[in-house]
């Protein structure tokens, strides 16, 4: 009897440990400051501008489960669209957003413009030191790599590096898709990474090679992913980890490949807006993103920033992924020049 | 006393003019002004730099050319399908016409970008379902939706119901005795339709054609979803690109919007010129009872034509949508109920649907009332310069939603009244931009009503309100109902303006569908579109039950 009880307790304890390990932090670390919670609940509302279109609704849903007294709403769109919207509202004195989330480019610009409030958290201890950059936090990591639809590329060579596009085989004609860097933050980052990694001449050869395949140049990444999984465009110059995880989970026959030169890294970030109407709710949301929000990221098959988080199913651990160098601040400073260069090379005006 | 007379005479006109000034002129003026000003060290200065830039760069000329081509192409297709269907439903003994007419109206509830995505799955090279037989038999890809013809086709077939509704309303209000006389005189049914009926409903046909042209050139979803992939850019795509710049290139957006305004004005002027100096009165004091034209064996051929239309616009796309909604992704071959469960478990779906219905019901009703006021004032009063009201109403119809939305947002953002962030900014934007549709539809119907009917009522002692409600209103009711349904269908799926004007609390159903599409989840978009279709059909059915579309008996 005693043995049985002990065995049951051991099993229960093991289950709790396992669950805690999966969730990554102890329950104590997951509770936000009660004073902050009380202040946020007193405000009662939260408005999030979320550039991560697929994740934001899930995060907001979970946030409202954890904090049912706060009515959280959101607007999702491309990062720069949200940025423009926020700037218009802010300049007219009618800003409605409290927190802003997107890949790093827009948050860097918001911070440089003095639009973000200082944010700090005890939860930082569960993350690597680079979790905080300026006044915003990094919530998850992603990277862009190569991908092909295996059921549509049987017997066909597939790219293994970015430079594979310099001399593309004839079989790739009308089969490649990539994304217009004028409309997509990540497409711009990939363009900047090509330029910074390979230099102007080789990057030019990559885009001229791509052009020779008569590619589809989509307005955003998900539009290309839809065509990748349907087989209409079975080769994609890049796919993001946050998209590939979801597609693979649904059974899409994708071969995700880290380029031999390295993948293009990027962070998803979040910040509290300086003139937020509900600043405590916004802080609580960032606190949530560092705690329960990380579970949402993990459950969606993405790379959490938390130190002990496992690699997503089907994707390699981060220490096994080679990355190309990307100086994002420099890329942003050169944004207009780089876009003009891409237009010149590809002839797309 | 004089004041009271003045108010009675000009009150409604004045009120409508003030309302149209605030909801049309000011936002438009803001948009146009952006084309001629530029910030220089914190101050605004007049400039022609935006105009010069647009006029001297070939991509903008190419966009104008492409826009013009699909404008003409889609209009031709919409008329080729819409006019015969209107005639068949209003005038003939087409077998199963009650059901067919309802079916043929359904496509207006399919959001343009969803129709575009569905047609990519039907007619794209490599994966298009319609290409499979050609590929299997001949090894050829016969259809390619990624062309100007393909884009015109996709837009045109979904605009056909608009032409059909406007022309159908006019046909139902028309005294059929003229057709009967033609047939008694020995004309065949076909010749009667071509030489008698069509010329009599010319104002409605032209209204429908101009409407189709104007919608097409201002359309955002379809040209972007299909055209962008092959670098086929249109004026609206260019406006979208300019809006993506940081800060947005308002100057370029404004000049491109002016292009569309000019194109639309040209179309409207052409329409006026074509019907100038001709009488289209067909509803007079003489009573009539419409008898259907009896089609012989050709009625089966005619029914086949309508069924074919329904196949291309509803059956095939809906099969694609249902297939997609049951799939984990298109085309995984793995099936799931997840996307349907989402419809009734998601709070997002419930809230956005409520917002959409509320906005569409209010805006469609107010726009229709305003349309009646403007049409009646323009056609039936002698107030000096009354035409200005119609011009004001029609002016923004051609302005792309994205540009008009910018004007509305910039205006209300700076107003002390708390409209921004509420559903009312969307309602006002809809009314401002789309009342012209109601004016076009209702005006073309009022033109057909002989003033002698109203004059008789006035002589019999009716005041103008009673004359209007007892005489004019019942006679033009088909076009009012058609106009309301047209506006409702536009508002329930409208995206290009809403996408700029919604805030976190006022997201609409089409915004939700667009967000989900943006997230790459086409299977969920498909389930949302099916729900939108069902809601649209239920509302349509309810309206038709309440106000059946029957012929007018004198």
Walk me through what this model shows.
The complex is a heterodimer of chains A (349) and B (554). Chain A has helices at residues 2-23, 27-30, 34-43, 56-66, 79-91, 104-112, 185-212, 221-230, 241-249, 279-290, 292-299, 328-333, 335-346; strands spanning 45-50, 71-76, 99-103, 116-117, 132-133, 136-149, 176-179, 216-218, 235-240, 254-257, 264-273, 303-304. With 349 residues, chain A is of the alpha/beta class. In chain A, strands 1, 2, 3, 4, 5, 6, 7, 8, 9, 10, 11 and 12 form a twelve-stranded mixed β-sheet that branches. The longest helix of chain A has 28 residues, at 185-212. The model of chain A is unreliable at 1-29 (pLDDT under 50). Chain B has a single domain, classed as MetI-like (MetI-like fold). In chain B, 73% of the residues lie in helices and 1% in strands. Chain B has 24 helices and two strands. Chain B has helices spanning 2-34, 49-56, 58-91, 97-105, 112-123, 132-138, 148-172, 177-184, 189-200, 202-218, 221-227, 235-244, 250-275, 298-326, 338-345, 347-380, 387-394, 401-413, 423-446, 451-459, 464-493, 498-501, 509-518, 522-546, and strands spanning 37-40, 43-46. Chain B has a two-stranded antiparallel ribbon with strand order 1-2. The model of chain B has no long low-confidence stretch (mean pLDDT 86). The chains are: A alpha/beta (349), B mainly alpha (554). Chains A and B meet through β2, α5, β8, α8 and α9 of A and α12, α18 and α23 of B.
The dominant shape of chain A is: globular
Largest interface: A-B, 51 and 49 residues
Largest sheet of chain B: 2 strands, antiparallel
Tell me the helix content of chain B. over 70%
SSE succession of chain B: HEEHHHHHHHHHHHHHHHHHHHHHHH
Secondary structure topology:
The complex is a heterodimer of chains A (349) and B (554).
Chain A: H1 2-23, H2 27-30, H3 34-43, E1 45-50, H4 56-66, E2 71-76, H5 79-91, E3 99-103, H6 104-112, E4 116-117, E5 132-133, E6 136-149, E7 176-179, H7 185-212, E8 216-218, H8 221-230, E9 235-240, H9 241-249, E10 254-257, E11 264-273, H10 279-290, H11 292-299, E12 303-304, H12 328-333, H13 335-346
Parallel strand pairs in A: 1-2, 1-3, 7-8, 7-9
Antiparallel strand pairs in A: 3-11, 4-11, 5-6, 6-9, 6-10, 6-11, 6-12
Helix pairs in contact in A: 3-10, 7-13
Chain B: H1 2-34, E1 37-40, E2 43-46, H2 49-56, H3 58-91, H4 97-105, H5 112-123, H6 132-138, H7 148-172, H8 177-184, H9 189-200, H10 202-218, H11 221-227, H12 235-244, H13 250-275, H14 298-326, H15 338-345, H16 347-380, H17 387-394, H18 401-413, H19 423-446, H20 451-459, H21 464-493, H22 498-501, H23 509-518, H24 522-546
Antiparallel strand pairs in B: 1-2
């Amino acid at each position: 009897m005693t043995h049985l009880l002990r065995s049951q307790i051991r099993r229960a304890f093991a289950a709790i440990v396992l669950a805690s390990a999966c969730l990554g932090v102890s329950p104590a670390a997951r509770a936000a400051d009660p004073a902050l919670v009380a202040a946020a609940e007193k405000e009662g509302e939260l408005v999030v501008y979320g550039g991560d279109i697929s994740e934001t609704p899930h995060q907001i849903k979970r946030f409202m489960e954890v904090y049912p007294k706060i009515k959280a709403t959101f607007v999702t769109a491309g990062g720069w669209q949200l940025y423009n919207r926020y700037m218009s509202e802010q300049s007219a004195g009618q800003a409605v957003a409290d927190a802003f989330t997107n890949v790093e480019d827009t948050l860097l610009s918001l911070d440089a413009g003095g639009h973000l409030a200082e944010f700090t958290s005890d939860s930082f201890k569960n993350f690597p030191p680079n979790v905080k950059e300026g006044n915003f936090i990094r919530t998850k990591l992603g990277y862009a790599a190569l991908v092909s639809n295996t059921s549509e590329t049987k017997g066909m060579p597939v790219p293994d590096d970015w430079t594979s596009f310099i001399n593309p085989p004839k079989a790739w004609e009308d089969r490649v898709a990539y994304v217009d860097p004028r409309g997509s933050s990540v497409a711009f980052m990939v363009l900047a990474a090509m330029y910074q990694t390979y230099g102007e001449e080789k990057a030019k050869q990559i885009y001229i090679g791509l052009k020779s395949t008569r590619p589809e140049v989509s307005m955003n990444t998900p539009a290309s992913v839809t065509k990748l999984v349907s087989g209409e465009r079975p080769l994609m110059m890049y796919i993001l980890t946050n998209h590939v995880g979801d597609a693979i989970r649904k059974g899409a026959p994708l071969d995700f490949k880290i380029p031999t030169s390295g993948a293009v890294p990027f962070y998803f970030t979040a910040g509290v807006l300086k003139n937020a109407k509900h600043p405590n709710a916004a802080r609580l949301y960032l606190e949530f993103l560092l705690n329960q929000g990380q579970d949402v990221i993990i459950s969606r098959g993405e790379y959490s920033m938390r130190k002990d988080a496992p690699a997503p199913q089907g994707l390699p651990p981060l220490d096994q992924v080679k990355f190309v160098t990307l100086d994002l601040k420099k890329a942003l400073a050169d944004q207009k020049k780089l876009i003009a260069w891409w237009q010149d090379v590809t002839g797309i005006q | 006393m004089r004041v009271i007379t003045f108010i009675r005479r000009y009150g409604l006109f004045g009120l409508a003019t003030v309302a149209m000034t605030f909801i049309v002129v000011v936002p438009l003026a803001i948009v146009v002004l952006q084309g001629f000003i530029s910030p220089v060290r914190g101050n605004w200065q007049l400039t022609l730099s935006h105009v010069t830039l647009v006029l001297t760069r070939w991509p903008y000329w190419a966009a104008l050319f492409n826009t013009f081509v699909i404008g003409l192409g889609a209009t031709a297709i919409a008329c080729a399908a819409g006019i015969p269907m209107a005639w068949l439903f209003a005038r003939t003994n087409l077998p199963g016409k009650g059901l067919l007419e309802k079916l043929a109206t359904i496509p207006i509830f399919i959001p343009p970008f969803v129709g575009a995505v569905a047609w990519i799955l039907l007619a794209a090279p490599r994966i298009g379902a319609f290409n499979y037989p050609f590929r299997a038999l001949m090894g050829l890809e016969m259809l390619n939706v990624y062309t100007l013809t393909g884009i015109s086709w996709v837009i045109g077939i979904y605009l056909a119901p608009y032409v059909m509704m406007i022309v159908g309303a006019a046909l139902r209000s028309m005294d059929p005795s003229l057709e009967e006389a033609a047939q008694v005189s020995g004309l065949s049914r076909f010749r009667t339709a071509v030489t008698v009926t069509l010329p009599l409903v010319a104002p409605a046909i032209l209204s429908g054609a101009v409407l189709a042209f104007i919608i097409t050139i201002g359309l955002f979803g379809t040209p972007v979803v299909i055209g962008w992939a092959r670098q086929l850019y249109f004026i609206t795509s260019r406006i979208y690109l300019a809006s993506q710049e940081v800060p947005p290139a308002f100057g370029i957006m404004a000049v491109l919007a002016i292009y569309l305004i000019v194109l639309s004005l040209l179309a409207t002027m052409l329409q006026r010129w074509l019907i100038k100096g001709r009488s289209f009165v067909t509803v007079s004091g003489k009573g009539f009872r419409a008898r259907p034209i009896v089609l012989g064996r050709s009625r089966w051929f005619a029914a086949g034509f309508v069924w074919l239309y329904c196949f291309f616009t509803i059956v095939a796309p809906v099969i694609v949508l249902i297939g997609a909604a049951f799939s984990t992704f298109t085309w995984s071959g793995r099936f799931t109920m997840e996307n349907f469960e989402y419809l009734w478990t998601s709070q997002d779906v419930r809230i956005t649907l409520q917002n959409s219905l509320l906005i569409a019901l209010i805006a469609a009703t107010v726009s229709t009332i305003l349309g009646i006021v403007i049409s009646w004032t323009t056609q039936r009063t002698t107030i000096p310069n009354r035409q200005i009201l119609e011009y004001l109403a029609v002016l923004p119809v051609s302005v792309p939603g994205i540009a008009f939305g910018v004007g509305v947002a910039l205006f209300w953002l700076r107003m002390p009244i708390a409209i921004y962030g509420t559903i009312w900014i969307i309602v006002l934007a809809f009314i401002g931009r789309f009342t012209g549709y109601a004016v076009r539809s209702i005006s073309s119907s009022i033109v057909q009503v002989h003033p002698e009917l109203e004059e008789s009522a006035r002589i019999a002692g009716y005041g103008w309100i009673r004359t209007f409600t007892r005489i004019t209103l019942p006679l033009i009711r088909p076009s009012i109902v058609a106009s309301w349904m047209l506006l409702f269908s536009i508002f329930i799926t409208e995206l290009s303006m809403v996408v700029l004007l919604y805030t976190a609390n006022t997201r609409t159903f089409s915004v939700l569908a667009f967000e989900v599409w943006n997230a790459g989840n086409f299977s969920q978009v498909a389930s949302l579109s099916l729900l939108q279709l069902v809601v649209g059909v239920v509302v349509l059915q309810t309206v038709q039950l309440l106000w059946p579309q029957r012929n007018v008996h004198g």
